[in-house]
Structure formats: C-alpha cells, structure tokens
C-alpha cells in the first residue's frame, strides 16, 4: 500500500483527482498523458493547466507482457481483435457505432484537450484525414461540458477531425490503456492491426508505411 502523505505537501496536480493503483508492475517512463485510472502521475497532465505548458512524462502501469514501449512503435499484440461494440456521440447527439466503421481502414485516436502530446499531434492527424489514406476517428476522453471539445477543435482550425465524445473513458478501458494519446489501426474487415501509444507524426513517410499494414 502506498501512503500519500499530508495533502498539504502534495503537488497541486496530484490532488486534482484520486488515483486508482492497480496491482500491476510499474514498468517505464512514457511519453504521454496519464488517465486517472491504473496510473501514477509523476508530473504529467494537469487538467486545469494550459496543455502547451504541461510536461509530457508520466509513469504508467502496464501488464508485464506489454510488447511495445509507448511512442517507440506499434504494438501488434492484439492484432485480429475486432472493432469494439461501443458507440459515441458528438455534442449535437449524433451517434457513431464503431462496428459500423468496417469496410475501409480506420485509425481511432484517443485524446483529450488537457493532454499536451495529444494536442501536438492533432495537426498531423488532420493532414492524414485530408489525405484519404485512411479514415481518422478522434475520440475525446474529456469529461464535463461536451461543447468544449468541438470549440477546441474549431479554435485550432481542425476542420476534418470530428468531436466524438467518450466522457466515461469506455474506449480507454476497453483498450486497457492508461496513457494518452493512444491510436489503434483497423483494417477494412474491422480487425485490429496495431496500437500505438504516445505522440507521433501521423503525416510522416514512416507512418505511411505503418498504415500500409492495413492493406
């Protein structure tokens, strides 16, 4: 059991939300933002701070069998897994069932407005969405006012990324992921190809080669 110590001595961002410590091994420092479940933040994302001013290094719990380090390349461990039976809405109430995305390759990106690495890679996801190489679906993990996600994307000039909302973090729980951004590629049959945890340049030639794995 880990004692938190007197609350007055804890950094402000640690006191924002309770942290659920799961009995998994603390494996590595990762490039990303920790979600408030299954993770121990060491100086990562403060939801009340400007994302551009936040640090991006956290320590995250992960299974001992994890095959890929976040930000280091794709993880093929779950290849062949079908699209999850989950649905999300946008601020207008329009619904998206993920299983309906089968038929062409799709890249699902989990992000949040308070996550600096997520925000940094959004323009490259916008460029990828405009290329037509793969369908890009961005699913926000923000809670609170649903209108803020659409307003955030509009303010950044991101016209191709839609504000799909997952305020309960259902998709992150499905992927057993505690770090953002997380991006998952599916082929045209709706089968997972790989997962990528951490920031990436989604418009780079190296990434285009990875996307080609979807066929």
UniProtKB/TrEMBL annotation:
Annotated ranges, domain Thioredoxin: 77-215
Presence of keyword Calcium: no
GO cellular component, one term: cell envelope
BP terms from Gene Ontology: cytochrome complex assembly
Broad class of where this protein is predominantly found: other
Comp. bias regions, Low complexity: 53-71
PANTHER family: PROTEIN DIPZ (PTHR42852:SF13), THIOL:DISULFIDE INTERCHANGE PROTEIN DSBE (PTHR42852)
Keywords: Cytochrome c-type biogenesis, Redox-active center
Protein name: TlpA family protein disulfide reductase
GO molecular function, one term: disulfide oxidoreductase activity
Region (Disordered): 50-82
Highest taxon of the lineage: Bacteria
Cellular compartment(s): Cell envelope
Keyword rRNA processing in annotation: no
InterPro entries registered for this protein in UniProt: Redoxin (IPR013740), Thioredoxin-like_sf (IPR036249), Thioredoxin_CS (IPR017937), Thioredoxin_domain (IPR013766), Thioredoxin_ResA/DsbE_sf (IPR050553)
């Amino acid at each position: 059991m880990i004692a938190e110590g007197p609350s007055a001595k804890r950094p402000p961002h640690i006191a924002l939300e309770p942290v659920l410590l799961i009995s998994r091994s603390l494996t590595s420092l990762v490039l990303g933002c920790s979600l408030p479940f299954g993770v121990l933040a060491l100086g990562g994302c403060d939801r009340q701070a400007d994302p551009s001013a936040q640090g991006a290094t956290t320590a995250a719990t992960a299974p001992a069998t994890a095959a890929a380090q976040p930000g280091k390349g794709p993880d093929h461990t779950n290849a062949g897994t079908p699209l999850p039976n989950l649905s999300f809405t946008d601020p207008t109430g329009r619904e998206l069932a993920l299983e309906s995305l089968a038929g062409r390759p799709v890249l699902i990106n989990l992000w949040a407005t308070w996550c600096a690495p997520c925000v940094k890679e959004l323009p490259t996801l916008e460029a990828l969405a405009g290329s037509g190489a793969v369908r890009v679906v961005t699913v926000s993990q923000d809670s609170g006012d649903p209108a803020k996600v659409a307003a955030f994307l509009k303010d950044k000039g991101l016209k191709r990324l839609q504000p799909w909302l997952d305020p309960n973090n259902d998709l992150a729980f499905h992927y057993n992921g505690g770090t953002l951004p997380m991006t998952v590629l599916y082929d045209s049959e709706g089968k997972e190809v790989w997962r990528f945890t951490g920031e990436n340049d989604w418009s780079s030639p190296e990434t285009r080669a990875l996307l080609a794995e979807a066929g």
